[in-house]
């Protein structure tokens, strides 16, 4: 796992990595820079955590360059909504902050161990003759896969969407049920 901080130069980070992987990343960046920009303003992304970058170097390059110019996108995921998971003795509750996402653009899939939440927030039309001074709202597709702390019953699930929050309630499977098994001769 590669840890990159704000003061670590790209050259130092590259020396740690496999040269071929870096070469592939640079080729992707070069292809992207040859494309015409799709927007005439720069999105400013605050609060990137450069102290604990994931093990994928492509993700760290993506995060660094996306804040400079939004055309630098090496993955399909455009934004990452905030989520809470909490549990009681009987159920697990997931709450997702996804204001501006139409209910029709949401997709929730579950199994006994994980929940996948996928959706799309469509960009609102921009005002003509306006100069953006701040553009922090993220648009596009998102996907979160949340691994659950307990096994759940995929048949007992409810979901609601109110005031920009998606709430999913999942019934836990009872773990203290004992089954007696007869022993045959």
Detailed description of the structure:
This protein has helices at 10-16, 19-33, 57-68, and strands spanning 83-87, 91-97, 106-110, 114-121, 140-147, 152-162, 165-172. With 185 residues, the chain is of the alpha+beta class.
Q: What is the topological layout?
A:
Layout: H1 10-16, H2 19-33, H3 57-68, E1 83-87, E2 91-97, E3 106-110, E4 114-121, E5 140-147, E6 152-162, E7 165-172
Antiparallel strand pairs: 1-2, 2-7, 3-4, 4-5, 6-7
Could you write a compact summary of the structure shown?
With 185 residues, this protein is an alpha+beta fold. It has 3 helices and 7 strands; from the N terminus they run αααβββββββ.
Task: Going across the biggest sheet, name each strand in turn.
Answer: 1-2-7-6
Q: What fraction strand?
A: 25-35%
Helical proportion, percent range: 10-25%
Low-confidence sequence ranges: 1-7, 37-55, 69-75
Number of strand segments: 7
Span of the ends, CA to CA:
55 Å
Rg over alpha carbons = 22 Å
Helical stretch count? 3
Structural class: alpha+beta
Mean pLDDT: 75
Largest sheet: 4 strands, antiparallel
- What is the helix/strand order? HHHEEEEEEE
Q: Give the CA-based shape.
A: flat
């Amino acid at each position: 796992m590669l840890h990159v901080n704000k003061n670590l130069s790209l050259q130092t980070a590259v020396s740690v990595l496999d040269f071929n992987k870096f070469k592939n990343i640079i080729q992707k960046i070069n292809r992207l820079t040859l494309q015409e920009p799709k927007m005439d303003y720069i999105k400013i992304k605050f609060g990137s955590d450069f102290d604990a970058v994931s093990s994928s170097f492509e993700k760290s390059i993506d995060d660094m360059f996306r804040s400079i110019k939004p055309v630098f996108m090496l993955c399909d995921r455009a934004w990452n909504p905030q989520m809470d998971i909490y549990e009681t003795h009987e159920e697990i509750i997931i709450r997702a902050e996804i204001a501006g996402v139409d209910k029709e653009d949401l997709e929730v899939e579950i199994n006994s161990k994980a929940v996948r939440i996928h959706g799309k927030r469509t960009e609102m039309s921009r005002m003509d003759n306006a100069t953006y001074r701040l553009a922090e709202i993220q648009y596009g597709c998102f996907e979160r896969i949340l691994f659950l702390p307990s096994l759940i019953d995929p048949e007992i699930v409810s979901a609601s969407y109110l005031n920009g929050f998606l709430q999913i309630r999942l019934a836990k499977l009872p773990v203290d049920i004992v089954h007696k098994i007869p022993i045959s001769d």
